[in-house]
Specification:
Radius of gyration: 23 Å
Distance between the termini: 41 Å
Order of helices and strands: HHHHHHHHHHHHHHHHH
Number of strands: 0
Shape: elongated
Structural class: mainly alpha
Number of domains: 2
Number of helices: 17
Helix content: over 70%
């Protein structure tokens, strides 16, 4: 959808839609009003959706789920600052969310909006807030882990450390890429390790549930084993596993760990279906 001009967008948001607020039954259960707003949103009636969500806030006073959806309406119409304000309001009241884990969805949305707005400090801050709840990362001996990576190699890391954490994996990946692109290579290595280790560990656990005798040997044998479990392929894509391996390799390469970087890149070249990553690796190899 093309962004509407700001004046027209404001007119659109404030103009009564098919669903006039006077027609909204405030005696209806809140969940029904929310569902009606979501239905209107999904049908492209953003004005009607806003009226339902605002009616929920008028009725409940505080209702972060309604703030999230109002933020979505502003976001889809390109009103980035208004969307940020609404998501920040939802975050401030996240203790009242019916599903507390939605807090991470809000933080990821805010991080993306701040990135779009060019506010890198806020982008980093929101991702770090997600990691504040990552108890595995907080309790891990990161320096020891990085020492194993540099001295014994990537496969030893996967053999020795089996950590899984779904909600923070993307935050580690995004921070790893961000730190690499901004020249903070040691920080990039740290976060890329976790961004890669989490999906490796989860996939190994999944394979072992189906094949209890499976034991991780090395990256190549792991990816060959995964061919027997095609359901791992969409997970590798959604977790951006190969992208994480690429940036881990790039950060190690820049930090002088060329051998381990080339090992990771070889795995990506052999087993990833991402042609763009493969071309980046070929370009690096020619330099």
């Amino acid at each position: 959808m093309k962004y509407l001009p700001a004046v027209f967008c404001l007119f659109f948001l404030l103009t009564p839609s098919v669903f006039s607020q006077s027609e909204i039954d405030f005696d209806s259960p809140t969940w029904l009003m929310m569902n009606s707003g979501i239905d209107a949103y999904n049908q492209g009636d953003f004005g009607g959706a806003l009226q339902y969500f605002r009616a929920v806030l008028e009725k409940e006073g505080t209702y972060p789920e309604a703030d999230i959806w109002i933020g979505k309406v502003f976001e889809i119409d390109g009103e980035i600052q208004l969307a940020i304000k609404q998501y920040e309001k939802a975050l401030a009241n996240s203790s009242q969310l019916e599903i507390l884990e939605q807090k991470y969805q809000i933080l990821y949305e805010l991080a993306e909006l701040y990135k779009t707005a060019g506010n890198n400090l806020k982008y980093e801050e929101k991702l770090q807030q997600i990691l504040d709840d990552d108890e595995i990362y907080a309790s891990a001996d990161v320096q020891a882990l990085m020492r194993v990576l540099k001295e014994k190699g990537f496969d030893s890391v996967i053999q020795l450390y089996r950590y899984q954490n779904d909600f923070s994996q993307s935050a580690h990946f995004q921070l790893g890429e961000f730190y690499f692109r901004s020249g903070r290579y040691l920080q990039a290595i740290e976060h890329c390790i976790f961004a890669v280790m989490y999906p490796f560990s989860k996939s190994i656990s999944y394979i072992r549930d189906l094949d209890p005798v499976y034991a991780y040997e090395n990256g190549a044998e792991f990816f060959k084993a995964c061919r027997l479990y095609p359901e791992t392929v969409p997970y590798f894509s959604s977790s951006k596993l190969f992208e994480g391996m690429f940036f881990l390799g790039a950060s190690l390469y820049t930090a002088g760990e060329i051998g381990e970087a080339e090992y990771l890149w070889d795995l990506v070249s052999r087993f990833s279906q991402n042609n763009q990553l493969k071309e980046l690796i070929r370009s690096q190899s020619r330099n």
